[in-house]
Amino acid sequence: MKPLKTVFAGTPEFAVPALSALIESEHKPLAVLTQPDRGAGRGRKLRFGPVKQLAMDAGIEVLQPPSLRPAGSEDALAEIKPDLLITAAYGLLLPPKVLELPAHGCWNLHASLLPRWRGASPINQAILAGDEETGISLMQMDVGLDTGPVLLQAATPIDDVESAGELHDRLAQMAASVLLSALDQLVSGSLPAASPQNEALATHAPLIDKADARLDWTRPADQLARQVRAYNPWPIAFGEIAGQPCRVFRAAPRSELAGRPGELLRGTGQKDRISVACGQGALDIFELQAPNRKRVSARDWLNAHPDWA
Fold it and tell me: If you classify domain 6-205 with CATH, what class do you get?
């Protein structure tokens, strides 16, 4: 079978390893779809997304329609006559007229073991829920949100100290491997038939709001520790400690400490952590940041604030 005529659709950093692998394969994409450039920084200067930058560096045509729903928005794709369209964190739903264009349909790489955690924040939700494992699902896309039948899956355990950012990077690399394996199987005729998802097991991963990261000290410490991990690197967990607003970057639960929820537990004898009482147990904080201050270790904070020790 000759190389496939592919188109790739993606926008953020998660999609970069998969696109890079596709570029290096015999199925180098003929075009890349990515969302329109957005302003960033104080001046709101337009910046290229990482997928667009990689595509430009590789000399690949970049298409940036704000939507694929208006009449004619799919014309550029139709002219390519792709065999396969592959998406990874593209951020726009593909309408039926686009789904039907490629000879082999459209594939999507999703960062969960579907049908668990359909939606925008699967990595964060898996950590928040205390899931022991997650993975990558490659599905045949349909008109729903992550509802299509699954072609391939690869699972990986979630380490109990792993942040969302660290897990994101591992899963992005896994997505590239899953994609290359599926392409090899498609070309060789050994790709298994897609399996419908079990709707009874479906869970939703909604868009994250900054307010979701607020630490409620009445909750158990293990839940707050997962919250710190799930919202690192964005939007970063935050709360008030001894009257001081703080962002919390690294933390762990400790069951043997107790106190009034939100109370700063002084005199614990630990020089490398700040302990705050929770609804159950305490949260040991190892890295934090006060407003308009740099991010510091708990040890450095305690050296500067001996009244907290």
Answer: alpha beta
